[in-house]
Hints:
Blueprint: H1 6-20, E1 32-34, E2 41-43, E3 46-53, E4 56-63, H2 71-86, E5 98-101, E6 107-112, H3 119-125, H4 132-146, E7 152-153, E8 162-164, E9 170-172, E10 179-180, H5 188-194, H6 218-234, H7 245-253, H8 264-268, H9 273-282, H10 293-296
Antiparallel strand pairs: 1-3, 2-3, 3-4, 4-6, 5-6, 7-10, 8-9
Helix pairs in contact: 1-2, 4-6, 6-9
Amino acid sequence: MDVSxxxxxxxxxxxxxxxxxxxxxxxxxxxxxxxxxxVIDGGGYGDIRxxxxxxxxxxxxxxxxxxxxxxxxxxxxxxxxxVLWHQLNHSNVLPFYGVFRLPxxxxxxxxxxxxxxxxxHFLKSYPETKCVPLIIDIxxxxxxxxxxxxxxxxxxxxxxxxxxxxxxxxxLADFGLATTKDSLYPVTSAASRNGTMRWLAPELLDPDINDxxxxxxxxxxxxxxxxxxxxxFSGQLPLNEIIHDYRIIISVRKGGRPLxxxxxxSRIRGLDNEIWTIVQTCWAQDPKCRPTAxxxx
Length: 297
């Protein structure tokens, strides 16, 4: 099918996948071999193992189900992520290779293996990295999602979901919470499960809004982007001095934000007045006052 027509079938295909727990057979891989026997990492609803596909190292995300009652709902989320991810093609978005089915019928999503890991781990190993190119990469990836047809909301932008390529560029990963702009899937339960509280915009923490109306938006992605910029330059979690989730909610709802880092590390990484002004604008309390990802780029 003509690539220019892709937007016509992406949304209905995602909807069908989310309701049925199915995915196109053309996405299925056959020849995947394991490297080692242990789980390397985990997140959301999947464990990560290393594999080989035609001799190339790949990351294999395996659907993790603890209770039989969870299987149907998680399968639908998993297949929806596969279908959405399959439509994406950008240098700052992690490539998707396909779906692999285990002998016990569990499903796996596959992508390139990134030896540099996520941006948080990478910067611990290379603390004096110049980080402005990285935050530009993230903004470019976000702009691609937000200007796609249909427009895509990532919904889980945070440091551990930003991977570093062999050429040391940043790319967005983990599309388990991503939706098209007109989707109406609540953020509350998924956000709690994935531990994204520190990156959630204040409008998503409003106790006066019911769960069905509490959905991620383009503006909430931009808010999370600002929090990731803080992570990258400071080496700290947003609002790291606050331990309990309920106190984070109260602080963010009242306009609380991390203070500007002032140590040598942040300056070496490239934080200056101009960039900090962008960060402050991106995490504005009013979502209408935040720039678009395209304006950031």
